[in-house]
Amino acid sequence: FKAAVLIQQWYRRHVARLEMRRRCTWRIFQSIEYACEQDQIQLHSFFSYLMDQFTPSSSKERDFISRMFISGESYKEAELEKYCDYESIEVPDSYTGPRLSFPLLPDHATALLEAFQQKQQLHARYVLNLLHETRKHLKQLPNISHVSTCYSEEVTVCGDLHGQLDDLFLIFYKNGLPSPSKSYVFNGDFVDRGKQSLEILVILFTFLLIYPKEVHLNRGNHEDHMVNLRYGFTKEVMQKYKVHGKKILKMFQNVFCWLPLATLIDQKVLIIHGGISDTTDLGMLEKIQRDKFVSVLRLKKRRESSRKPEIQTINGERESGTDAAGNETAPRLSLQPQSAQAPRTANRLEFSRWLRQTVQEQIDTCRRLVDISESEPEELTYSSMVSLKDVDESCWTRQEEWKQILDVLWSDPMPQEGCRENKVRGGGCYFGPDVTEKFLEKHSLQFLIRSHECKQEGYEFCHNRKVLTIFSASNYYEIGSNRGAYVKLGPDLIPHFVQYQANKTAHMLTMTQRQGFPVALISRVEESAFRALREKLFAHTSALISAFKAYDVDNTGRITLSNWATAVESVLRLGLPWRMLRPQLVRSTEDGMLQYKSWLDDLAMEQRSQEHIQSSLLEVIYRNRSNLETIFRIIDRDHSGLISFEEFQQTWKLFSSHMNIELTDDGINDLVRSIDFNKDGNIDFNEFLEAFRLVKQCP
């Protein structure tokens, strides 16, 4: 009996330790993911701020600026049809892939499934034709789709797929293909991160056209061309369709903005991608002209007609808040030192020093200007954070509409009461159980189904089982990190869940998983998480050294582990339990003290073993590569993979006009020629990185 008790105690401690490791690993993955989303939104806010303040000096500049962020709105109906004309594209006789003819039939969907399983690619003509037909269908749909279980035995709801085609295949294998007796609701985030986003969209759009009453698609926060620039869908399309990729992307942008915002089952269960806020109103959602919001990340705050020329002297004689007549203007950027000027020569070293200094200062300044979350008191309601004063009625309506869509696509539930800004993601809000209860009561609903968050079991209830999160992309962070799931609802609206893991390696471990989270699997996932965390630490080496030195008053090179944890959190701001994670990150200590320089050297050595690049260069690459790649794709408006001289020149005017930099057209021409190292008349991504000189230069 004593032996049995001893074994039981040992087993419980073992399971408890595994659970603790599992939760820490999960927090690392989510914290890094959400920090990346914050970077994306802040970077976009930085460009948006410049866009709102920029006054084009010519129609050419105005056209270029309008294309940077609102390219999806710049095409009228007839222009879009003409630009993306699929009939002019010929299909060669050598093409052996699937062929589509409209109206589509179930055999077309079957052929597509078989072709994609065999890694075949659908010809660009058929992709564009499919997008045209899908767009026509979506334009006829309301903002909120209505589904009834009276016409089918059950409705299947799927969450995020994120380009993981194997998960979609597994769902269809387990649950069956869409049909008149089997309805599906796919709740957004079909694209990005995975490598087969385009195939998923083609399949879903095909079934949507074949069974328009049984297949329903909601828009997610990743059905946004600005988000696609960072997370992979833009790159995927251009790699798969090098000739017609620009046309296909243009059509996808337009189709995305026509996707419905929500689905309502039997008037009792609301399906939305993200969540709600204390101001979410289904009546307003139903009336919004949803196609106006090509990108939810950007709201054009001022009409072009009301924009007045703004003047600011370079020597800072005029205050940033007033114009020449003393009228109030939008906040302007200030440069320290204000007399900074671009080098007049094409000297690459000199240019890189100047560019790195000025751009970094302005990015830091703009982040402070656009990231208002730190200055907002915690007790404010989310609705009070959107200031509507000093805005006329039409702008007020558009801002309210934008806020409704932003909340529905980006929000997350929280266990606390109330509604507050989502500081973790940088967009949307956090809503508590009281907000959920009021919303359900107001609209006579039973519960909400949402996605947007990866869950370890593929689904999770919260808010007294009134909010259900469903996530269908298995192995999202790493093989074995999470299961995917979908939920089936019958006439009784009782949810029935089906879980799965699509990867073969993870599938081999399912028998062990039934008895608990396997040690081998959690070790693999845990190592992946800590590897990503060590990369994050290495990317902030310089900032960490400064933070450590603040605690090392006597300059001994040693700090306490408690100070180490505090300093690391102050730099990375990931909200992680650093003291608990310390044994995995700090190998050895002396008397509870850490030799922080040696620890940072070990981090650098580990990263250099993976990338044969000097550490100073590698540090900044790890920290800035995603942002720089996003900036590159923003400037590269035709998605050619190259920045033309004109694109660079016009973009640099956007920067220089609000950085108090005296730079003539000849000076810009000298700069762009100095960046074009191979002298081919364009700037590729490697040249773009080299121009920013991601390496510390000695003064």
Give a brief description.
With 699 residues, this protein is of the alpha/beta class.
How would you describe what is shown here?
By secondary structure, the protein is an alpha/beta fold. The chain folds into three domains: 18-70 and 518-610, EF-hand (Recoverin, domain 1), CATH 1.10.238.10; 99-298 and 403-500, Metallo-dependent phosphatases (Purple Acid Phosphatase, chain A, domain 2, 4-Layer Sandwich); 613-695, Recoverin, domain 1, CATH 1.10.238.10. Helices cover 48% and strands 9% of the residues. The strands form five sheets. It has a six-stranded mixed beta sheet. Strand 3, helix 7 (197-210) and strand 4 (215-217) form a beta-alpha-beta unit. Helix 1 packs parallel to helix 17, helix 4 (106-117) runs antiparallel to helix 7 (197-210) and helix 5 (124-139) packs parallel to helix 10. The longest helix has 52 residues, at 2-53. The chain is globular, with a radius of gyration of 27 Å.
Describe how the helices and strands are arranged.
Elements: H1 2-53, H2 59-70, H3 77-83, H4 106-117, H5 124-139, E1 144-147, E2 155-158, H6 165-175, E3 183-186, H7 197-210, E4 215-217, H8 225-231, H9 233-240, H10 245-256, E5 262-265, E6 269-271, H11 282-287, H12 348-370, H13 393-410, E7 412-413, E8 419-421, E9 429-431, H14 433-443, E10 447-450, E11 459-462, E12 467-470, E13 484-489, E14 495-500, H15 504-507, H16 510-513, H17 519-539, H18 541-551, E15 558-560, H19 561-572, H20 578-585, E16 593-595, H21 596-610, H22 615-635, E17 643-644, H23 645-656, H24 665-675, E18 682-683, H25 685-692
Parallel strand pairs: 1-5, 2-3, 3-4, 6-10, 7-9, 10-12
Antiparallel strand pairs: 2-13, 5-6, 8-9, 11-12, 13-14, 15-16, 17-18
Helix pairs in contact: 1-12, 1-17, 4-7, 5-7, 5-10, 9-10, 17-21, 17-22, 18-19, 23-24
